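Anyone have tokens for Monovalent cation:proton antiporter family protein? Sequence:
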Amino acid sequence: MDQHVSVTSLLIVVTMAFLTPILLYRIKLNAIPVVVAEIIVGLIIGKSGFNIVHEDMWLSTLSTLGFIFLMFLSGLEIDFTAFSRSKRRETLPNGKKEPNSFVVSSVIFMGIFVLSLILSYIFVKTGFIENVFLMTLIISTISLGVVVPTLKEAHLMKTVIGQIILLIAVIADLATMILLAIFVSLNDSGSSNTWLLLILFAAGVVLYFVGKRLKNRSFIKTLSTGTVQIGTRAVFTLIIVLVGLSETIGAENILGAFLAGVLVSLLSPNQELVHKLDSFGYGFLIPIFFVMVGVDLDIWSMFSDKKLLLLIPFLLIGLLLSKLIPVYLLKLWYDTKTVIASSFLLTSTLSLVIAAATIGERIGVITEQMKGTLILVAVITSIFTPIVFKKLFPREEITNKKIPIAILGANQITLPISRELKSGLYEPILYHTQIKKDEKQIANSLFDIEEIPDYSLETIEKTRVFDSEIVVLSTGDQELNASLAIKAKEKGVPRVIARIESPEFEQNLKEHDVEVFSSFMSTKVLLRAMIESPHVINILTNQETALYEIVLKNEAFDGMSLRRFPFTGDVIFVRIFRGKDSIVPHGDTELQLHDRLIVTGSKEYVDELKNELEFSEASKRFY
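Reply: yep, here.
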């Protein structure tokens, strides 16, 4: 009978986790993070609602694994290239010089932590909570799981303000997780000495160097495909080893999982592996954990305690003040709306608050009701802060926004291409090693060429190459092209195109999501197409009838049918690619975000349409 109840509860939880994102999509509540919606669903089916789910061995095990994997992905989300990225400080639209992202972010976080400590003393003095350290961690933490998707959706990850917001969240995530581990070792009577944490971090350092040494070995690449998938196996082994080591030395298992995520992030995994891990975590284990968080919350017991009820608005105000006052430093460079909007987004808390509250309740520092109150406040912040951020963040209309393209290597292919691209929506910059004086005068009169001493990584990092939307590598050295292409992807460049003539490099680059072209293959394919399909080639090469690809990123057109499409002009929708599906467009076909639209028409009108569809309302800000 117990086994039957166990499977029934698991069935309900998994089914609700499956239906939640579908319901959010159907009722168009995209502003609410899915994980928050899963907690709300848990409230409905758990102790606060119909009470039809009861925790047992199945759910307890899967929920714990979900929590561990969530902490692993939190560590994996940390982009350490943000700390080392050397970018030229340019002039903002208001005429002021860009701030140093890392310095400003560090100062702001220190301000957040100090203010959180002061607010925690106030909460202790007023009798709301007894432990200053725990409350300081809860107030100062910031949810990367809310900040990162919100910045990506707003297309702000590449902007200076986006980098500052991201860095503040990253520093807060790292600092609060380490301090949480120290807090547990100091307060848990069953824990070992704090210095034993050094063993865990030492093991992490050793595993990092082992992973770095093995990562590019040929046999590892061979075993990474088919049924072996050695990379995925290595990640799960790393998680289990560090989680086991954490528990052995008396630390929390989530610290080991978080450290595993940090190590994998430092090793710069390819995007395919990250996608697999995200799919497994957010597709199965993590939804179960968040639903169970809601199931275990008893809101009615909180409401029966007037002190806990009063704590909710006071804590929300405290969370906002702890971010608003330090972030106001950004007023030196940005307008008031930008500063306030950034403060609201940084107020979001979720994963680490749940971790801190759960651990605090387990070791007897706070009550179960207090744990529920803290989690409820975290859920509330995760609901309203992204919405307020989107409403408040200033929207500046863009005029002829150009997509930056960096082209390395000036030759007979790249020179004419850069000139043709410049007449459209693109802003190409050619980087080339020093050329002769007589050639320089001719080249600079026709093309924008930025001379660099060499193509070494150190030289490239001093330019704006890795800050471009598209990087094209067409130097005469294909090994150099391959190595720089991989480095560009690791630096977060969205599209990287490399000129590779030998097939031996091609497969490895494709695994890193690098696009490859070669003179020989291009010529062969073109000649065959001219023989077999001459009219198709005419469509592709004729400026007036060419095919163009437009990616729909403007939220205003999401769900709009082509019949209601407001733009009329010399353009025809030929095909719509949605994921792996190819759709023949009709009047009733509804557009969806991230659709790839294949259109044909006059270049001027296509450029205008591309400018409107490829930049969301949120992205019309700092360009």
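The beta strands are 403-408, 426-433, 449-452, 470-473, 495-499, 515-517, 547-551, 571-578, 581-583, 596-601.
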